[in-house]
């Protein structure tokens, strides 16, 4: 019990004192037990008052202080520092909010505001009496990181982290690295190809010592917490011997021999692929892979190439890391059947398919046996939805569609582009592309969300019509040889990762950061960070920026060898606990584990994972759990003071 | 439903349109244009219709004729689409579409046609003179002038004049009738009482004589105001000179092409001097402003603009020289210059009046007339 308490009532200029009678509050507080000092101050947070409090603590030998001022969100740490500088434990400082909760909220009724302030201050004094000195918890951290997803964002972050001295485990679910970028030929703004960018990053990765890359790999399970995650990684076999010296001739023959034929996801089903494959010749890692979901194990390829091994088994490996960085990326939105004629009218494709088509077709642009002249782009498909959940703008698609339209005109003769937009958003430097396309004669039409463009077929000819707001709402139509749906971004399907890591997901299905402006790459799960387009629709430039900021954040978190955590955590009384499993089932952070201590099975809190949320307290049937800093004694004494 | 025609842009560019595709519909041109009102957005509507290639709507529109190219839209356009020049090229395009023979389009878009027909018509004149000219006498009149009417008797030349005037009127009037069909004939929703056509007709004459519509292109910038009014005065001077000269040679040739040498104050000489001064000053002014590109409207010059100016200039100069040679008694120079004068004059009138630049003098007043008839009819309907 603290019995030399100092109380300070802040005017906050006139923010508080205009409505709360601070003198009255001071007087009543001064009469409370154990209070040895009660003062009003003009600005408690000012340097001079901070110094005065420090002097008071030293001279009056105060063992706890209460400041009644603004919200602790603003100045909790200011006054904790004051306490610390005066040699007092920072947790013996209690802040009472009489501005947001009294003067501002009840400016219409000053006497009641004063009454409420008195009660809150009394409760604060009670809490101060029972406050315990606490010290922050320090846990050791392993300077190693697991980067999930070897797309551009993941690879770039891995390189940066390795260069800062962090051990990196980079895992990729596919057999090859590069993610979406490897599917794109020329990229907008720089016109280098996605593959060039991927190759450059890959070559850097294999030359960097402290990056270990696993392809065909996924997280199998996780235990532990920030600083000390134990991760099991599941690695799918490639079915090609690891030290295979690639013989192109043999590989080609093996591909020819493979009897399986299925839609090639790399080309968005425009072509067929074999079970043994590489998506493109310069793909990394250089060794091909066999897709076992489609392989019939006929053995024909084994007869051609002795390096093929159909008996390879799945492997599980363990890694210990201090943090996890998710760069799992995004997928193109898959339109619903018959959305703008998709999969109903033959010549309706997505922008991503068109980009693959441009790469596959030299000389003439032919689709479904027909030469393409008029191309109609329909914008915002799967983005800015009125009815669906994808309310967001996917950011990259306007620019990408326009860049593709420019490429079409450069590569093929006689192309006419028609852009059915809902307003063009080629923001920033990308505006140059819009200018280029309109100067080359592309026609832009615009409608609002309530009257989207319509695609229909009449006598074997496809038309797109629109009520064009740029032509006084006139109904216009275009004969289109190809309709291109400019589809937005959705996050990749990551159900297993989501179940294991429990990273919060927004309504838009992207991962949620703590704060979009101030903490943009951290999640509420300590030690799990996010970057790139798994978090929000981003283009490559923006993805790399976010991955670099995440890399810096990871490094600053785990590279010091230890991590300091708030001591306000759940604590379990070993004698009272009867292990009923109720607390583990409600804990949202997987912070409570079953443990045997001296022959008794009890629950134990993993300090690194516990966030001090308190959700386990009310479910405990034996009241074995206390929340440090908010113990039953403290809270009950506060309630007594409030109802007194 | 209107169908977009992306190939139209290419066609319009042959008539002189520039980068109008780059329009991003900001509306600055409409904000600055003094012809815009709440029902009609000049010149943005025309730009949009041109981008989309909606030819039907363009051909039924009168807007291009109401614009006198002050050029403020081109100065204001952030995308450098040059709306003023687009309106200019639309006038050329419309001239071609009103012309049912299809010659206007060919003359505007093909240099071979343009210069080929000039040379052909000049050759016709030359051949006619080679075979049918009168005696080339060196004998002078009592006053010392050349006997031009012996070499080229006015009565015979006048027959040619009447044939030419007949052809010009036939083509020009039939083109105007075609314009009427496109403008009023296609507006089936409006019923126009016959009375209105007569009631409004005086506007054709008024606007032909004065180009009053020019004053609607008012500007807030004072030095531009001066520039525009100078342009209007000189254009008016040029045009009245042209009309006087045309009447003199077609209707009063016997009086005008005389062997007599009158005193300087005689109306025959005064009218002739007024017209030649007007033509010379006008042509030189337009030459200089097109060469200097000092005004927005003279920045871009289509090849047919130069052709018109050069032909007009040559006609004037040769006419002046014929006059000088005649009164100073120089027979051969007079005869040769007279033939050359007609070799320039005839192609200029035959090509420019019904098929090219000159025709805007007719289409503009008719456009205002049709516009007034339509809006009067709409008022009655209400």
Structural overview:
The complex is a heterodimer of chains A (644) and B (382). By secondary structure, chain A is of the alpha/beta class. Chain A folds into 5 domains: 5-134, Rossmann fold (3-Layer(aba) Sandwich); 144-236 and 314-329 and 496-558, FAD/NAD(P)-binding domain (3-Layer(bba) Sandwich), CATH 3.50.50.60; 248-304, no CATH class; 334-490, FAD/NAD(P)-binding domain (3-Layer(bba) Sandwich), CATH 3.50.50; 566-628, Alpha-Beta Plaits, CATH 3.30.70. Chain A is 28% helix and 25% strand. Chain A is built from 16 helices and 34 strands. A 5-stranded parallel β-sheet of chain A has the order 8-7-6-16-29, with helices on one face. In chain A, strands 18-27-21-22-23 form a 5-stranded parallel β-sheet. In chain A, helix 2 (47-60) packs across helix 3, helix 6 packs parallel to helix 14 and helix 10 runs parallel beside helix 11. The longest helix of chain A has 21 residues, at 110-130. Chain B is an all-alpha fold and 382 residues long. Chain B folds into 2 domains: 8-98, Fumarate Reductase Iron-sulfur Protein, Chain B, domain 2, CATH 1.10.1060; 103-381, no CATH class. In chain B, helix 16 (267-292) packs antiparallel against helix 17 (303-327). The radius of gyration of chain B is 23 Å and the shape is elongated. Chain B starts with a strand and ends with a helix. The interface between A and B is medium-sized, with 22 and 19 residues.
Over the alpha carbons, how many angstroms does the gyration radius of chain A reach? 32 Å
Strand content of chain A: 25-35%
How many helices of chain B in DSSP terms?
A: 19
Residues in helix, % of chain B: 55-70%
Tell me the name of the CATH homologous superfamily of the largest domain in chain A.
FAD/NAD(P)-binding domain
Oligomer: heterodimer
- Rg over CA atoms of chain B: 23 Å
Q: How many structural domains does the protein architecture of chain A include?
A: 5
Shape of chain B: elongated
CATH class category of the largest domain in chain A:
Alpha Beta
Strand content of chain B: under 5%
